[in-house]
Amino acid sequence: MTRRPGPAAHAHPHEHGEHAESHAENGGPMTADPHVTEAAGKHSPGGSGPAVAPGARTAYEVDAGIQALWREFTESPDQIVRDRLVLHYAPLVKYVAGRVGTGLPTHVDVGDLIQSGIFGLVDAIEKFEPARGLRFETYAMQRIRGAILDDLRSQDWVPRAVRSKAREAERALERLGARLNRTPTDAELAAELEISVDDLREFYGQLQLTSVIALEDLVAAGKDSGSLVDTLPDDGAVDPVAVLVDQDNRRQLAQAIAQLTERDRIVVGLYYFESLTLAEIGKVLGVTESRVSQLHTRAVMRLRAKLVEQT
Fold first, then answer.
1. Is the Cβ–Cβ distance between 156 and 167 less than 8 Å?
2. Biased composition, Basic and acidic residues: where in the chain (predicted)?
């Protein structure tokens, strides 16, 4: 006896085949959901093809599971079901982000595009109406691309009119270069754009805003090597010039102290290096505090004179 297919098979008999064929022609990705595991190209143990791995599901079962998720989400929108749909169609976001990123500058991170595209995918799932008979993949790719472009425009500091004029000027340069077999002049480019030379040069000033260059490349321009790190000051680093000046001052002071009398050297040493008071120094030397003050004053005057002579 032949086994009759279930209701899900009658609802979409060729959906999976069309899905695979459409993505194969467009270079698009195949989606995968850990809750609805696809075993593409495999058959049931009783079929003529190779056996299905234990726990795996056929392509037909995957499509049936996705349709069941859509029915459940349509009847009662639930965040858990929506997250399962997002996980299943997530490869679409990576595919669209890769296509959009090919025409963008290198400083634009594809990961940021994917993050923006996820919001577009969630919006597409919440607004999609399966009853209208449209393919979700086609609808979602438009929403994902729109979300990525909207996010890029929100981060762009250049007006859209300037971007449009820049693309128009680039196409005009290509046409003139192919026609003249040389680089066109400003007058020829202005005539091609149907504007005056003054307007063209004013437009050049506006285009400067669209040029983005890494700060590190700008600093290293014209140099054989070096990076931005080499140009940043370190406030906590020791100044080698200050270290040399301090060492020289210490050397000169030591020489000047060595030329003092023995009693003056003792007073200077006890007062500045041992941190004794004048009264304590007087007890060490056996003199009064006023006498120690006189010795200290004389020693300082002699040191100042010696340092002036050395400098």
1. no
2. 12-24
Residue type, 14: H
DSSP string covering 40-82, please? TT---TTSSSPPPPTT-EEHHHHHHHHHHHHHHHHHS--HHHH
What is the distance between the alpha carbons of residues 102 and 1, in angstroms, rounded to a whole number? 55
- Residue 120: name the closest of 147, 153, 102 by CA: 147
Angle (CA) 66 68 71, round 5°: 110
Distances (CA, A) of 256 to 152, 242, 246, 250: 71, 21, 15, 10
Structure tokens at 116: 């923006």
In the block, residue with structure tokens 């040389």: 182
Q: 59 with 30: CB under 8 angstroms?
A: no
Structure tokens at 58: 């056929």
Q: What is the pTM of this model?
A: 0.39
Strands (E), the chain: 38-39, 57-58
Residues 220 and 212: their CA atoms lie apart, in Å, by 15
pLDDT digits (tens, 9 = 90+) for 260-269: 888 888 999 9
Say which residue the tokens 């500045």 belong to: 272
Q: What is the pLDDT of residues 36-73, one digit of tens each?
A: 434 333 333 334 444 444 455 677 777 788 888 888 88
